[in-house]
């Protein structure tokens, strides 16, 4: 089944403790992206990647890192999480640039930072 | 920059009622327009899309027409069902971002009662 898999689904952590949220897609998609969803703000892009070893900042990249060493994987790294990073995170992938190609989303990771 | 404005929710309807969720956009040129739906506990799924002016996207009884003159992409359905209860997001992908990301509206929650 074609899908984007994120792990974990739920994560509670403390301020400053490094964490990684994994994302993997099995559709051989070139484009991958991370979004965060907050009430009243919709979805905001954190980082995206057009292909292996090519990543770029989205609208809210501060406090996050990503890497794209393989086509299928696009982990999101929080080196020193803070409470304002408490949010619902989505990984998404697309065949190519988004003019005609829809995004496929994972089921989300709900992160709480205390 | 590009932006999407959606009507505030929640929208509360009885089963078989007519649905309209308004969406207007600001973008340079001719962006691609999308409606995504998010069911509880899940990621977003593409509902429909339109890539040029006057195109009508349709899926599962939902429709939206790309209106360049009014910069709008309103979502409609003739007869809603309880199973349509979800959050609906309007989004665009445009020239300003090289079609490299989706810009989302804040989402509109739809609640359908039997």
What does this structure look like?
- The complex is a heterodimer of chains A (114) and B (114).
- By secondary structure, chain A is an all-beta fold.
- Helix content of chain A is 0%, strand content 50%.
- Chain A is built from no helices and 11 strands.
- Chain A has strands at 4-7, 10-13, 19-25, 31-38, 42-51, 54-57, 65-66, 76-78, 87-94, 104-105, 109-113.
- In chain A, strands 2, 4, 5, 6, 9, 10 and 11 form a 7-stranded mixed beta sheet that branches.
- Chain A is globular, with a radius of gyration of 13 Å.
- The mean pLDDT of chain A is 93.
- Chain B is globular.
- In chain B, the strands form 3 sheets. In chain B, strands 2, 5, 6, 10, 11 and 12 form a 6-stranded mixed beta sheet that branches. In chain B, strands 3-9-8-7 form a 4-stranded antiparallel beta sheet, with no helix packed on it. In chain B, strands 1-4 form a two-stranded antiparallel sheet.
- In chain B, 41% of the residues are buried.
- Chain B has 114 residues and is mainly β.
- Chain B starts with a strand and ends with a strand.
- Chain B contains no helices and 12 strands.
- The interface between A and B is medium-sized, with 27 and 22 residues.
